[in-house]
UniProtKB/TrEMBL annotation:
<comment type="similarity">
    <text>Belongs to the carbohydrate kinase PfkB family.</text>
</comment>
<dbReference type="GO" id="GO:0044209">
    <property type="term" value="P:AMP salvage"/>
</dbReference>
<dbReference type="InterPro" id="IPR001805">
    <property type="entry name" value="Adenokinase"/>
</dbReference>
<dbReference type="InterPro" id="IPR029056">
    <property type="entry name" value="Ribokinase-like"/>
</dbReference>
<comment type="function">
    <text>ATP dependent phosphorylation of adenosine and other related nucleoside analogs to monophosphate derivatives.</text>
</comment>
<keyword id="KW-0067">ATP-binding</keyword>
<dbReference type="GO" id="GO:0005524">
    <property type="term" value="F:ATP binding"/>
</dbReference>
<feature type="domain" description="Carbohydrate kinase PfkB">
    <location>
        <begin position="43"/>
        <end position="301"/>
    </location>
</feature>
<keyword id="KW-0808">Transferase</keyword>
<dbReference type="Pfam" id="PF00294">
    <property type="entry name" value="PfkB"/>
</dbReference>
<dbReference type="InterPro" id="IPR002173">
    <property type="entry name" value="Carboh/pur_kinase_PfkB_CS"/>
</dbReference>
<dbReference type="InterPro" id="IPR011611">
    <property type="entry name" value="PfkB_dom"/>
</dbReference>
<keyword id="KW-0460">Magnesium</keyword>
<dbReference type="GO" id="GO:0004001">
    <property type="term" value="F:adenosine kinase activity"/>
</dbReference>
<protein>
    <recommendedName>
        <fullName>Adenosine kinase</fullName>
        <ecNumber>2.7.1.20</ecNumber>
    </recommendedName>
</protein>
<dbReference type="GO" id="GO:0006166">
    <property type="term" value="P:purine ribonucleoside salvage"/>
</dbReference>
<comment type="pathway">
    <text>Purine metabolism; AMP biosynthesis via salvage pathway; AMP from adenosine: step 1/1.</text>
</comment>
Length: 307
């Protein structure tokens, strides 16, 4: 680690392998990074950290890049706050996220209820929402969750970050009964266990307990999927656990872990919507995250070689 990197981490109290919301002390960091470092601008985040932007240059960049990627985006555009940004500091392949939500903190369920937007909800069969959205509009999450339960659709969420499990526990508990799939990593799972007083750090035990949390609908059983970096993926369903090995990567090939968890979910869902077995879903998730961590930022080569 260089002196410059150490200075940057120390100055803004940044811890590696972490995700936090920006405080006032972090706000100068965004301009500093842009002016002093060779930064990359990538539209996205965990499900683009939900669906709202400002009418500014970053908002326009997000819309343009999303449409180029074939994503049908219906953003809520806010005129009172700038588009949210997330600083990603990568040192030695490990990343730390500092999110300045701005317009991303202004979403209102009225936007979701608009006929043209709710029509998309009614058309969809699968829903995936990042846990980060619990900080903004839990009402919107419950609207979609209740719709999914009432119409036998599949509803999924991600634990997303330890601070979500810890400081948004009540909002998370209200959404959990509707979740058919719960995704997370080992740190988030252990935080979830601690805040619920389960007195276990065993990821397999935690995964089973989450999968057995009472459900709002009996149409779909809940499946919990926990990633553990280089360790096996843990999948809990029907009171049992299966472990799936990941694709190991030599340390010298590790470029950037940012987006690895989101890529895993993306790969997993690509097979789930095709009604493939859980083994294939996990295999695709492992492939996607394996590709992501060998590249800078959450980016992919033009043509995947998954088969």
């Amino acid at each position: 680690m260089t002196k410059q990197e150490l200075f940057m981490l120390g100055r803004y109290d940044i811890k590696l392998n972490n995700a936090i919301l920006a405080e006032d002390k972090h706000l100068p960091m965004y301009d500093e990074m842009a002016s002093k470092y060779n930064v990359e601008y990538i539209a996205g985040g965990a499900t683009q950290n939900s669906i709202r932007v400002c009418q500014d240059k970053f908002g326009e960049e997000m819309k343009k890049n999303s449409k180029l990627a074939g994503v049908n985006v219906h953003y809520r555009e806010d005129e009172t706050a700038p588009t949210g940004t997330c600083a990603v500091c990568v040192v030695g392949g490990e990343r730390s996220l500092i999110a300045n939500l701005s317009a991303a903190n202004c979403y209102k369920s009225e936007h979701l209820k608009r006929p043209e937007n709710w029509a998309l909800v009614e058309k969809a069969k699968y829903f995936y929402i990042a846990g980060f959205f619990l900080t903004v509009s839990p009402e919107s999450i419950l609207l979609v969750a209740e719709h999914a339960a009432a119409n036998n659709k599949v509803f999924m969420m991600n634990l997303s970050a330890p601070f979500i499990c810890e400081f948004f526990k009540d909002q998370q508990e209200k959404a959990l009964p509707y979740m058919d799939y719960v995704f997370g990593n080992e740190t988030e799972a252990r935080t979830f266990s601690r805040v619920h007083g389960w007195e276990t750090d065993n990821v397999e035990e935690i995964a089973i307990k989450i999968s057995q949390w009472p459900k709002a609908s009996g149409t779909h059983k809940r499946i919990t999927v926990i990633t553990q970096g280089a360790d096996p993926v843990v999948v809990a369903e029907d009171g049992k656990v299966k472990s799936f090995p990941v694709i190991l990567l030599p340390k010298e090939k590790l470029v950037d872990t940012n987006g690895a968890g989101d890529a895993f979910v993306g790969g997993f869902l690509s097979q789930l919507v095709q009604e493939k077995p859980i083994e294939e879903c996990v295999r695709a998730g492992c492939y996607a995250s394996h590709v992501i961590i060998q590249r800078s930022g959450c980016t992919y080569p033009e043509k995947p070689d998954f088969s």
